Amino acid sequence: MHSLLRRGYTDLGDLAPAAAAASGDGAMYVNDPVHGYIGLSADMLQFIDTPQFQRLRHLKQLGTAYFVFPGASHNRFEHSVGTAYLANKVVEDLAQRQPELGISERDIRCVTLAGLCHDLGHGPFSHVFDNQFIPCARPGASWSHEEGSEMMLRYAIDENNIDIDEADVRFIRQLIQGSTAPVDGERMFLFDIVANKRNGVDVDKFDYIQRDCYNVGVRCSHDFSRLMLNSRVIGGEICYSHKEAFNLTEMFHSRYSLHKRVYNHHAAKAIEFMIVDALLAADAALGISQAIADPARYQTLTDEVVRDIERSTEPALADARAIISRLRTRDIYKFVDEYILPPGIAPFADTAISAAEIVGHRADNDDFGERDVLVDVCRIHYGMKQDNPVDHVRFYSKFSAAEKFPIASELISLCVPDKYEEHILRIFTRTPDKRCQIQRAARRLLAKFNGDVVTQTPGSTPPAITPHRGLTIPGPGAAASAKRRRLHFSA
Percent of the chain beyond pLDDT 90? Predict the structure, then answer.
């Protein structure tokens, strides 16, 4: 296995030894914009050079965010290669630093392949498919992209006659799924590398945070290379130097910030609704949702499904084509309003604030209906819902590298947050010219909701959902008045 050859070559002659070594065992190297030169072993190429893996070239890493951030054109393919590189680097470095762990070549190979294949199961527009489309198209169906990855891994092996032991396949699938419970015959710290269910510190996150920041033009404040250098296994789990506590806090904050600023951008979310509507309208004709049970069909299901609908002349796809036509001309669904839900209020708001309830608070002259309103509750956190993930990480001191211990957040910084999760209620509309009507009705509903909460909790003062003044849409008269003022000022 050849991991990173080296970054920052200035002389082509420096590449000759690595190239010769790579060619000697059927491997090759590629130049990645995030990690530099990455060696691809023959084991990795067995999977990369298959239709099932090449499919990842046609799945945008950030889904609909590409319609908002022009740089977000990267795909699941390069993220998977980058994750495999980091997985390989972590496990090889641990083997070199701690030979007493007894990490075998088989362990290194399986962890690397788990990193490579962990996203094989993503559907069109990534998380839009399994988080939004499938629940609407197949209510009650229990399915995730991790399950899809296991299905496509098995399909790739069978269809391409990949020579791999069945025990290794089982281990790779377990590494992709992640586990904190003991797995017979396997070293549990290896499960901390690709999909860490213990605290979320894993190479999948290392790669996508760095890669997404690079492509969308957002600065990344944490240094994942330091984390890998300052890690060791203690008591069956990967621990980090106490000096990395703030670096880890920064990493989880970067994750939160990307979700807040990029992944859940209001325009990207509006386009997600459009994509889901188009796929639902096309599902009966194309059987899109049925593909999750058929790997041969799933292999051909990528972001290109939108172009397939667009090119079709089938009458059954007319409604889906109309939605995509709106997307192409930027006639997108519109953001109406947003409210950060106070802690404890979210469970009530989920059921009390709906499209039907908003319609029920229309004014007499309003003409919007339920179909015009879209309500979304977005849950953004540091990676472990309401918990601080760093509380679940164990550290070691340079004075005692065999002892692990937690570090309380107040010992890391007094400026770290005391809350690690927020629920954001957002309202959108399929009919842009009805935004103002819908916002006014939604705010009337919220005023009633706030009063109901006070009534239901006598003797206390529960926090209220507060409208954001900066998001208040002016009425038609106010907009005309503002326009006149601007014209007068410019004159």
Answer: 80
For the segment 221-254, what is each residue's pLDDT rounded down to a tens digit?
A: 888 999 999 999 999 999 999 999 999 999 999 9
Q: Per-residue DSSP letters for 335-382?
A: EEEEEEEPTTTHHHHHHHS-HHHHHTT--TT----GGGEEEEEEEEES
Fold of 50-265: Hypothetical protein af1432 (1.10.3210)
Task: State which H helix or E strand residue 271 sits in.
Answer: helix 266-286
CA 10 vs CA 34, 35, 351: distances in Å:
17, 16, 61
* Cβ atoms 274, 398 nearer than 8 A: no
d(CA 416, CA 158): 49
Instruction: Give the C-alpha separation, 239 to 143, whole Å.
Output: 32
Q: pLDDT band at residue 2, thresholds of 50, 70 and 90?
A: very low
Q: Is 145 considered catalytic here?
A: yes
- The neighbour count for residue 12, using CB atoms within 10 Å, is 8
**CA–CA dist 359, 349 (Å, integer):** 16
**Residue 70 — very low, low, confident or very high, per pLDDT cuts 50/70/90?**
very high
Band of residue 347 on the pLDDT scale cut at 50, 70, 90: confident
Length of the chain measured in residues:
491
Identified catalytic residue from 145, 222, 265, 381: 145
The Cα-based distances of 277 to 137, 221, 326 in angstroms read: 10, 37, 12
Pick one of 3.40.50.300, 3.30.200.20, 3.40.367.20, 3.30.70.2760 as the CATH number of 333-382+420-474: 3.30.70.2760
What is the Cα–Cα distance from 123 to 121, expressed in whole angstroms?
6
Would you say 68 and 335 are in contact if contact means Cβ atoms under 8 Å apart? no
Q: In a 3-state reduction of DSSP, which class is residue 56? A: helix
Instruction: Enumerate the CATH 1.10.3210.10 domain ranges in the chain, comma separated.
Output: 50-265
Q: Which two tokens stand for residue 181?
A: 């419970």
Convert the pLDDT of each residue in 390-416 to its tens digit: 999 999 999 999 999 999 999 999 999
Listed residue (231, 221, 166) closest to 193, CA to CA? 231
> Long-range contacts for 209-212 (Cβ within 8 Å, ≥24 apart)?
209/251, 209/254, 209/255, 209/258, 210/34, 211/34, 211/61, 211/74, 211/78, 211/79, 211/82, 212/61, 212/62, 212/72, 212/74, 212/258, 212/262
Which part of the chain is CATH 3.30.70.2760?
A: 333-382+420-474
pTM for the predicted model, two decimal places = 0.90
